[in-house]
Amino acid sequence: MNNGKKELDAEGLVKYFKDEFKTKINSAEIKKRQTGSKKKEFVNIWMKIDKSIFKDVIKHLCEYQFPHLAVVSCSDLGKTIELIYHFSVNFGVRLNEISLNIAVEIPKSKPEIETICDYVPGALITEREKQEMMGVKIIGIPDTRRLFLPDDFPENVYPWRKDEKGMEKMIRNLHEVKK
Amino acid sequence: MTEKKQTTKTTYQLPIGPIHPALKEPVMFEFEIDGERIIDVDVQLGHVHRAIEWTGMRRNPIQIIYLAERICGICSFVHPFAFVRAVENACEIEVPERADYLRVVHGELERICSHMLWAGVAAHEVGFDSVLFLTWEMREKVLDLTEYLTGNRVTKAILTIGGIRRDITKDHIPKIKETMDYLKNNFEKLRKIYLDDKTFKLRSQDCGILTYEDALKLCAVGPTTRASGVKKDVRVDQAYAAYSDLDIDYITPDVLTGEVNGDVYDRIIVRLLEVKQSIDLIEQAIDKMPAGDLVSEPKIPKLLNYIKKTAGEGIGRDEAPRGEVIHYVKFDGEHEEPYTWKVRASTYNNILPWIPMLKGEQIADIPIVAASTDPCMSCTNRVAVVDKNKKYELDKEQLHQLSVKKTLGLMK
To answer: Could you give the domains of chain B?
Structure first.
């Protein structure tokens, strides 16, 4: 599923995105680490992007090559929520893989992001998890149900939040939620 | 009394789980059935959600290693491995070369145990219980070796941040050689049963098919995706531990048969060949292992203090027996405990591929198809069949009997 494009190395891949989105790519860092006796390298790219271009970045990535989405991780950063999409590209050839981590910050006042299920159908499970655990609204998600949390879990409590919507209050007053 | 029965065709719902024999942990399937055929599947999770990530965010990284080990009893090496690699990447902690090799040995031992366990379960699912005992007898030898090397059969407590806790010395080598020879000598027997036996072929060929496109699009991992022809194996794709020094290649079913069907049979081929590959990798690692330290920083308070002062984020990916495992950690530079810890086990990505696999199959195929991805979830006790008006239940034994009956029917 290479879409006929030439395989790029880490620097090339960063350039591929920077050429298209210019300053909307807030930062891009290439981290290389060595391992074993032969000191072979593995490459991680950490890229922070603006929310406005998020869907276009995913589209642009799929145009380069169909990526493997490992998972979406997220952190509560106080005023914002950071979502990191951990992709990997260039797999299938020995020691050629690049881990591409695309981070996007969304404001807590309006925690919304578009779904990527239309490009990467395998993202459904992880997007459903983000909805219930972090309270991020995924716009256009094909399946809005909860994934891990039971149906009688209280509304508006999101276990991964570090603010008043987190679990701290709930676990101290379990009688209130009749658990 | 002999009134003619109405023959209007309606589909009905068949919930399986949350407790089921093909699964080692609870998960809930809801099938839409037309006669014997599966029309649609829905999967529900969360019955064993233990809030491990939440707990971990309140502990220090050394404590998390032992918590991560308890995520899964079968993957008790790869989870802490992914976690320590994430911390090593986030805080730029070096790992000595010898530890890289030792990590390969333990990782591959775990893969052999897991694939053998799976092979036994698969045999049981189709009603071939003598093979279950044969494979588990072989697996027992590997568990004995694991106990000999680490002190434990299951939770090995062998990893630490920046290295490994126990060495493999010269005294250990004969026992390792002996076990590997035993496995090699008995491998042919296993291969013959699983790949040449007529019954196995009848039950597994053209059953539970996952196409190449679906495997890629649904982000399947591990033997499940490789059996569909997607070349994806973290050990080969990326340089980690000592795998980049060793001779290793992707195992897809065409290596043996020359074609890729993506059915249950292909998943059996991939796992069996991987057992052989693991034996080879252990032997290579033992041969090439350099001398040197086991850990880069043996003083744990010093290490924890360093991590506490370092702000950073990192991911650790490795190839578990079931596929890629990824852990993400983020440290804020003020606290000892991670700011964020995200765990993604391999079965998480292999849930969606179940849907295309199961669609169009028969009820009696559910156990073997569901088991063919080697789900890390759990053990079924009963299945309730809900018809429009009446509700009756099939327990674990009855469902298993259905599967056995199908095997016997095929053999006639």
So the answer is: 12-48+359-411 (no CATH), 52-348 (1.10.645.10)
- By CB atoms closer than 10 A (0-12, 13-18, 19+), residue B201 is middle
CB contact burial B267-301 (16+ within 10 A = b; e otherwise): bbbbbbbbbbbbbbbbbbbbeebeeeebbbbeeee
Residues 6+ apart with CB under 8 A from A75: A81, A82, A84, B330, B339, B340
Residue B138: predicted pLDDT: 92
Peptide bond into B223 cis (omega under 30): no
**CB atoms closer than 10 angstroms to residue A80:** 16
Residues in chain B closer than 8 A to A150 (CB atoms):
46
Chain A within 8 Å of B297 (Cβ-Cβ)? Answer: no
3 state SS of B72: coil
Contact state of A86 with B328 under an 8 Å Cβ cutoff: yes
Q: Which of B219, B239, B313 sits opposite A122 (nearest CB)?
A: B219
How far is CA B65 from each of CA A18, B71, B73, B348, B376, rounded to the nearest angstrom? 38, 10, 14, 21, 19
Structural domains in chain A plus CATH codes: 10-151 (3.30.460.80)
Beta-carbon separation of A84 and B218 below 8 A: no
ipTM of the complex: 0.93
- pLDDT > 50? residue B162: yes
Select from A40, A43, A73, A151 the residue whose CB has the most chain B CBs within 10 Å, as the one to mutate to test that interface: A73
Which tens digit of pLDDT belongs to each residue from B35-44? Answer: 888 888 888 8
Residues 6+ apart with CB under 8 A from B84: B65, B159, B160, B161, B162, B316
Q: Please, are residues B35 and B58 in contact by the beta-carbon 8 Å criterion?
A: no
What are the chain B neighbours of A151 within 8 Å (beta carbons)? none
Contact A42, A88 (CB under 8 A): no
DSSP letter string, B74-134 = TTTTHHHHHHHHHHHHHHT----HHHHHHHHHHHHHHHHHHHHHHHHHHHHHTT-HHHHHH
Short-list B109, B104, B341, CA closest to B240: B104
Tokens encoding A115: 């779904």
Kindly report the pTM of this predicted structure: 0.89
- Chain B interface test: which of A37, A69, A145 (most B C-beta within 10 Å): A37
Among B122-131, B235-244, B278-287, where is mean pLDDT lowest? Answer: B122-131
Q: How many Å apart are CA A133 and CA B197, to the nearest integer?
A: 47
Instruction: Encode pLDDT of B66-90 as tens digits.
Output: 999 888 888 889 999 999 999 999 9
Q: Strands B20-25 and B378-380, how do they pair?
A: antiparallel
Please indicate if any CB of chain B lies within 8 Å of the CB of A80.
no
Q: What is d(CA B224, CA B227) in angstroms, rounded to the nearest whole number?
A: 5
**What is chain B's Cα-based Rg?**
23
What is the rounded distance in angstroms from the CA atom of residue B78 to the CA atom of residue B104?
10
Closest by Cβ to A36, choosing from B244, B249, B344: B244
